[in-house]
């Protein structure tokens, strides 16, 4: 069986790598990480400024952070290349960064589908791929047990949004999937006990208000505007006692507002404009001492300014 060109290139890279570190005291990053970065670079349409392939010390390259485990076998723990005008696809080889904790490729021109294995990093805490042109659907199972910050907003993801992040991670604090094209959603967020920020706006999501959100007691900001949610708002929303900002505007919610705002003592901003809400304004909403911004325009509520 012949050796593929890719395999041969990796073998030559390994041999050269060993020769270099044996002949000098130059610090060097782990060979597997170096190979992963080379594969990542090969899938781009142009070179990355500040990356020097004549050096094996990738830890000194732009956007790369390494640990201090050793002098010649440092592991890459951060790849931060946001807003670098990079274009291309993400190659499967990037999953070779086994110890990476921060992966930020936001505000670039990446396109195509994201490799499924990219959602299986054991140590990843921050994943930011926002403001690109990624397409396709997200995997049903996202196994990121250490994830805290998850941002895939402003891309072109479509199909069913089946989010089960908290089945494998109880540490996540920030989820942003705004401005994609999911359309339908199946959210399993009841185990997200550390979740503080949720942005699902601008997706055309339909159905009732996701009731498992009522169980996330530390939730501070919830943006569901510009979707197609419908039905009444449940009294369970009063369980979100730490909520500071709630935006459900530009949906199809109907019925009356639940009289629970007395329990939302930290709520500063409430936007529910452009729905089909009816009835009297709740006394607790009118008398709320914490609210500074209230937008109820384009409804049929008695006592609300149009």
UniProtKB/TrEMBL annotation:
Its main location: membrane. Keywords: Glycoprotein, Leucine-rich repeat, Membrane, Receptor, Repeat, Signal, Transmembrane, Transmembrane helix. The keyword Cell membrane does not apply. It comes from the Eukaryota. InterPro entries: Leu-rich_rpt (IPR001611), LRR_dom_sf (IPR032675), LRR_N_plant-typ (IPR013210), RLP23-like (IPR046956). It is a single-pass type I membrane protein. SUPFAM superfamilies: L domain-like (SSF52058). The keyword Transmembrane helix applies. Residues 1-23 form the signal peptide. One of its GO terms (cellular component) is membrane. It holds the Pfam family LRRNT_2. It is found in: Membrane. Residues 33-67 form the Leucine-rich repeat-containing N-terminal plant-type domain. Belongs to the RLP family. PANTHER family: LEUCINE-RICH REPEAT RECEPTOR PROTEIN KINASE EMS1-LIKE-RELATED, LEUCINE-RICH REPEAT-CONTAINING N-TERMINAL PLANT-TYPE DOMAIN-CONTAINING PROTEIN. This is Phytosulfokine receptor 1-like. It comes from Herrania umbratica. The gene is LOC110427080.
